[in-house]
Amino acid sequence: MTKKTMAMLTELKLVGITTRTNNTQIFETDPSTNKIAATVQKYFHNGLAEKIHDRKNPGTTFCVYTNYASDVNGDYTYFIGEEVISFDNIDKEFETLTIPVQNYAKFTNQPGPMPTVCIDMWQNIWKMNASDLGGERAYIADFEVYDERSSDHNNVTLDIYIGIRK
Q: What's the number of domains the chain is made of?
């Protein structure tokens, strides 16, 4: 069971790495074709979070879906990184992302194993209409937040924020 609440968040400044992909590729088991899995692996195996300067909440990871070509069926940019206090002294290997003030439908899952809990949450979100979500999707930036509740990969709780037009 997933809990939904509505939230309005202030601007977020993030630093991390990206790839361009779409939802048909996310279920690929081959790392050479699953760009998200390859990007996540690169981020964690290379210890990139530790190289980000001015981290606001070290250890809290944002996985963002942004720069949508259209909707859930089109290409988008996948970003993984952390929130920062400022964009000063950003290493060349990183990209920056500013998420504007936005209204969100926030979904929080019951604890469970990764990646099952995340996949199940997204599959349920994709089935929702505007009424279920609390408004039309904005397709500006949607994101997952992994914090201390996500440290045990067999018992993960995460939040997914879906941008809503108001």
A: 1
Cα–Cα distances in angstroms (integers) from residue 137 to residues 77, 85, 152, 157, in the given order: 17, 28, 31, 23
CATH at 158: 3.20.80.10
pLDDT (tens place) for every residue of the chain, 166 residues total: 689 999 999 999 999 999 999 887 776 667 677 899 899 999 999 999 999 999 999 999 999 999 999 887 889 999 999 999 999 999 999 999 999 999 999 999 999 999 899 989 999 999 999 999 999 999 999 999 999 999 999 999 999 999 999 7
Domain that holds residue 140: 2-164
Collapse the DSSP code of 5 into the 3-class scheme (helix H, G, I; strand E, B; otherwise coil) and give the result.
strand
- Long-range CB contacts for residues 17-20, cutoff 8 Å, separation at least 24: 17/42, 17/43, 17/48, 17/79, 17/80, 17/81, 17/93, 17/94, 17/95, 18/77, 18/78, 18/79, 18/80, 18/95, 18/97, 19/77, 19/78, 20/75, 20/76, 20/77, 20/78
The pTM (predicted TM-score) of the whole model is: 0.94
